[in-house]
Design goal:
Helix content is 46%, strand content 12%. The longest helix is centred in the C-terminal third of the chain and has 19 residues. By secondary structure, it is an alpha/beta fold.
C-alpha cells in the first residue's frame, strides 16, 4: 500500500483542537499500520503560529517546501475571519492537486474563499453556516450533518467533528478494525454517522421565554412515549392548539412537531448507544410505537437503520 501524505495547514488564530484532533487520529493509525501515513504540518513561512487559545504550534515546514499531499487538511479558528491572502492563494493553487481536500469547522470558509467549494455540498460549524451560504451562494450549505463528503472534498462541523471525519477517512483507507483501535485509544466512538445532527434537540431549539412553554419543552423531553400531539401539548400549556403552535414556534424557532421528532430521535439514539434494550422496546419507549416507525425516522434523519446506528455508535470498551 502506497504511503499517503497528510498535510495539515497552520496559521495564526487556528483552533488547536481542529489541528490536534485529526492529527491524533492519523498518527494513531500510522502507529497501528506503520508506513501508511506521512503526517506533516506547514505554515506560510515555516514559522510558529499562535492558536486562538494562545498555544504555540511549530510546523514541520513552510508551504513552499511542503510535500504534495494525498490529504490536505484545513482547520478552522479565529484566523479564518480575515485570512492572509497568501494562504487563500496557496489553497486555490494547491487544493485541487490533493486527492482529498478536507476542512474542519470554519476551515470551510478558507476553502470557500479559495473557490474550492463552488458547486459542492458542504457544512461547517452550525454558527457559521448562514454566513457561509450568504457569502458563497454557489455552495450548497447543509447546516445539520457533522460532516459531508462530496467527491474528493470533505467538510466537517465544529471542532470535535474533525475527529469523526478523520476516523471515517482512516476507516476508508485502512479498514474498520484499524479505525476502531484508534477510536478506542482516544476513548471516542468509532465514528458518528456523518449525517448525524450537529446538536441535540434542546440545543437546536431556543428555550421558550414563557414558563408554560418552557414546562412543555421539559415535559416533552422527559416523556417522549406520551401523546405529544399539538392538541395534547396545548392543553398542558393552557392554550388553544392554534395559539400554542404559533407561540411555540415564535419562542423556540421550530414547530412543536419538529421538536418532538428531534426529542424522540435523540432519546432512541441514547438508548441504542447506552443500553442493551431491543429495538422493539426502544421504539415504544421513544414514542415511535413500532420498530418500523423508528426505522423510517432513523433512515430519514440519519440515513441509517437503528441496528446499523448501534453498531457504528456503540461506546468503545474500556481496557
Amino acid at each position: 500500500m502506497a504511503q499517503r501524505t497528510v498535510l495539515l495547514v497552520l496559521f495564526d488564530g487556528v483552533q488547536s483542537l481542529d489541528v490536534t484532533g485529526p492529527l491524533e487520529v492519523f498518527t494513531g493509525a500510522e502507529h497501528q499500520a506503520p508506513g501508511t501515513y506521512r503526517i506533516r504540518t506547514a505554515s506560510l513561512d515555516g514559522g510558529p503560529v499562535r492558536t486562538s487559545s494562545g498555544l504555540t504550534l511549530v510546523p514541520d515546514t513552510s508551504f513552499a517546501d511542503a510535500p504534495g499531499p494525498h490529504t490536505l487538511l484545513v482547520p478552522g479558528g479565529q484566523g479564518t475571519r480575515a485570512p492572509d491572502p497568501r494562504l487563500t492563494a496557496w489553497l486555490r493553487e494547491h487544493g485541487p492537486r490533493a486527492e482529498r481536500l478536507v476542512s474542519v469547522c470554519t476551515g470551510a470558509i478558507l476553502l470557500a474563499e479559495a473557490g474550492l467549494l463552488d458547486g459542492r455540498r458542504a457544512t461547517t460549524h452550525w454558527a457559521y453556516c448562514a454566513k457561509l451560504a450568504r457569502d458563497h451562494p454557489a455552495i450548497d450549505v447543509d447546516p445539520d450533518p457533522i460532516y459531508v463528503r462530496d467527491g474528493p472534498v470533505a467538510t466537517s462541523a465544529g471542532v470535535t467533528a474533525g475527529i469523526d471525519l478523520a476516523l471515517a477517512l482512516v476507516e476508508e483507507d485502512l479498514g474498520r478494525d484499524t479505525a476502531l483501535t484508534v477510536a478506542r485509544h482516544l476513548v471516542v466512538f468509532l465514528r458518528r454517522p456523518g449525517n448525524q445532527a450537529q446538536f441535540s434537540a434542546q440545543l437546536a431549539a431556543q428555550t421558550a421565554r414563557r414558563e408554560p412553554l418552557r414546562d412543555v419543552q421539559q415535559w416533552i423531553s422527559e416523556h417522549p412515549a406520551e401523546d405529544l400531539a399539538v392538541e395534547a401539548l396545548a392543553a398542558r400549556a393552557g392554550l388553544s392548539p392554534r395559539h400554542f403552535a404559533r407561540a411555540f414556534r415564535a419562542e423556540t424557532g421550530t414547530t412543536p412537531g419538529r421538536y418532538v421528532d428531534r426529542v424522540r430521535l435523540e432519546h432512541a439514539r441514547r438508548l441504542l448507544e447506552d443500553t442493551a434494550a431491543g429495538v422493539e422496546e426502544i421504539s415504544r419507549a421513544s414514542g415511535y410505537g413500532t420498530p418500523e416507525a423508528m426505522r423510517r425516522a432513523f433512515l430519514k434523519a440519519l440515513g441509517t437503520a437503528p441496528a446499523e446506528y448501534r453498531r457504528r455508535f456503540r461506546p468503545a470498551p474500556a481496557y
